[in-house]
Design brief:
Length: about 300
């Protein structure tokens, strides 16, 4: 029996046809870091309260994709990023109307459609993930061809909250507090993290929506590159060590697909080794094996992270 395993790296970068459907599995892990803090829970790592499994939202994953593509090709006309920190979205829409020589306050439906097309042509994340641009400066709405699920950890995670101090003070301590322990030792703070977590997210590429946004083969190649490498541009003290541990792409030979997505995605399931009680590293999991004989006709599997 032949199978695609974690021991068999891809030797070449294959070409993917953006006119056909693709479903994919993204596996990543976090060591001594917080992969996605919950602002409603004091920035503790997100968890499913019923199972204790860790969660990383699709919004968090898309943010990393955007940041990577911006760093990689953000200077090019077609690869600008629409959703950026501090960006004024109405100003982004206004760029389309300026380029088209139109007044957004007098925009007709034809003008709005033209503005939407311009935004798709110039912003990678719009033609990839879609966007709601029907704000005061109306540039329409776009349904993107690429969607991601929440990532969930394979095993329950242990969310910890460590106390930290800073030896330098922001301002001189009051005289009456000169002997206070906090004043002498520095500012107290908290740092939320998990010792280890292996996460799995699922993604989907639907070419029917790509026709509306202009998403093409080159965009698909950039997306795969971002999913594999984006963790290396997301380093911070709070993130710990985060790494891509697998990107498995199921490619269909037709635009509508040759099999239901869930049947394919269920073929990639990391499992903890039987002799390991609590996982504290990627080696505590069995190598991911996918039986290629179980692939439906017209579907191929490619691993892209190696």
């Amino acid at each position: 029996m032949t199978s695609a395993t974690a021991e068999q790296p891809a030797t070449t970068a294959p070409h993917f046809n953006a006119t056909n459907r693709h479903d994919f599995v993204l596996i990543f892990d976090v060591t001594n870091g917080n992969p996605n803090g919950d602002p409603d829970a004091g920035n503790l790592p997100r968890t499913d309260p019923e199972t204790g499994l860790g969660i990383v939202t699709d919004v968090s994953l898309k943010r990393k994709v955007r940041n990577y593509v911006d760093a990689l090709r953000g200077g090019e006309e077609r690869y600008k990023i629409y959703v950026q920190q501090g960006a004024i979205l109405n100003n982004q829409h206004g760029r389309a109307y300026t380029a088209l020589g139109k007044d957004p306050k007098k925009a007709t439906q034809t003008d709005i459609q033209a503005a939407k097309k311009w935004m798709c042509e110039n912003f990678f994340d719009i033609r990839t993930f879609g966007a709601v641009m029907s704000t005061e400066v109306n540039a329409g709405q776009v349904r993107g061809p690429v969607q991601l699920t929440f990532a969930r950890s394979v095993d329950p995670i242990l969310g910890l909250d460590a106390a930290i101090t800073r030896v330098a003070l922001t301002k001189p301590a009051p005289k009456q507090a000169a002997e206070d322990e906090t004043a002498r030792s520095g500012t107290m703070g908290r740092k939320a993290y998990i010792p280890y977590g292996l996460y799995v997210a699922h993604g989907f590429y639907v070419p029917a929506f790509a026709r509306d946004t202009g998403f093409g083969d080159e965009d698909l190649a950039v997306l795969w590159q971002a999913l594999v490498n984006m963790w290396d541009l997301d380093r911070s003290a709070s993130r710990g060590l985060t790494a891509c541990r697998g990107l498995y792409v199921f490619s269909h030979s037709s635009p509508l697909g040759n099999a239901p997505a869930h049947r394919l995605l269920d073929l990639v399931k990391p499992r903890r080794r039987e002799d390991v009680t609590v996982a504290r590293g990627f080696d505590d999991y069995q190598p991911v094996e996918v039986d290629t004989f179980r692939l439906p006709q017209g579907v191929t599997l490619t691993r892209l992270d190696e």
